[in-house]
């Protein structure tokens, strides 16, 4: 009887202790939690052509020694998962949301499929996400706003559909946003203008519609803005002059109308300017000469009229110049001869005429194309002289 009275409290104590340990382990994730999350990912990979996960991700070795896994030295928790270019096929399990110390999640150039599990919203320490060139589908989750530390979000080359969630506008630390080459529709959300640290924005090759929101030009840190090959309409907003750091602008392949705004030429850091394949009209502004750092200018296939401005001769850094497929008239200005860095000139399918002696001072390695396919050229030159200097000239 005495022994029984002694054992009963002891058994109760052991039971309470076990429950405490279980509860503690559940509330305090550790490297074992990370290991289980990664093993779940391994189990969701149906094809591993290089057998990296099959042979290297083993419980007999430390998680921190697995290929593609980096742990922080002080707390030995997984902080980086990099499975780039492994040719993996599979899906993302919800268990991956247990990698609570993860700051970088890079799995580009694989064939991961399906939608993204909501449990990923638990990864509040994430700073970099790269899911490029996979086969993910579904909508871009609105819960991406959980990643308050995020600096780079790259989802291009997938099958995401639906609209761009306005919640992305709350990611105040975001510097890079790449959503191009998906099946996204709808308008560019006004909230994107809240991303005051954004430097690189690429939304092209989608099915976006509507106008370019003027709020976008509040992102004054923007250096690269690519909105090409969508269905954007309306004019190029005058507010574009606010993007004084802009170096690369591509708005080609849209339904943009109106004149090229002179305010655009206040963006003096521009090196690449592509406005081709739109319905822009009016003349090429004389202010284009302000863009002295420009190396690539493409205005082809618009409805531009008037003469080529002589100020184009100020573009001494330009390598490629394409004004083809417009309705430009008059003579090619002699200032074209100042383009000492030029490698390719295309003035085809316009209504240009006159003397083109300006080409004599251009490098003999330059490809010059000025032909009209429907009629003989109207240029008064000694053709053989030009051809001697420029064997790849096309004036037929």
What is the number of helical segments per DSSP (H or I, 4+ residues)? 4
- Mean pLDDT, as a whole number? 89
Terminal CA distance: 115 Å
Helix content: 10-25%
Strand order of the largest sheet: 2-3-5-7-9-11-13-15-17-19-21-23-25-27
Low confidence ranges: 10-27, 372-377, 381-393
What is the annotated CATH architecture of the domain at 29-116?
Answer: Alpha-Beta Horseshoe
- At CATH level 3, the topology of the domain at 29-116 is Leucine-rich repeat, LRR (right-handed beta-alpha superhelix)
Q: Characterize the quaternary organization of these chains.
A: single chain
CATH superfamily of the domain at 29-116: Ribonuclease Inhibitor
**Range of strand content:** 15-25%
- What is the overall silhouette? elongated
Pfam families: LRR_1 (PF00560), LRR_8 (PF13855), LRRNT_2 (PF08263)
Domain Leucine-rich repeat-containing N-terminal plant-type: 33-71
Subcellular location: Membrane
InterPro entries: Leu-rich_rpt (IPR001611), Leu-rich_rpt_typical-subtyp (IPR003591), LRR_dom_sf (IPR032675), LRR_N_plant-typ (IPR013210), RLP29 (IPR053213)
Task: Please tell me about this protein's structure.
This protein has 396 residues and is an alpha/beta fold. The chain has a domain of 88 residues: Alpha-Beta Horseshoe (Leucine-rich repeat, LRR (right-handed beta-alpha superhelix)), CATH 3.80.10.10. Helix content is 13%, strand content 23%. It contains four helices and 27 strands. It has a 14-stranded mixed sheet with strand order 2-3-5-7-9-11-13-15-17-19-21-23-25-27, with no helix packed on it. The chain has a seven-stranded mixed sheet with strand order 1-4-6-8-10-12-14. A hairpin with a 6-residue loop joins β2 and β3.
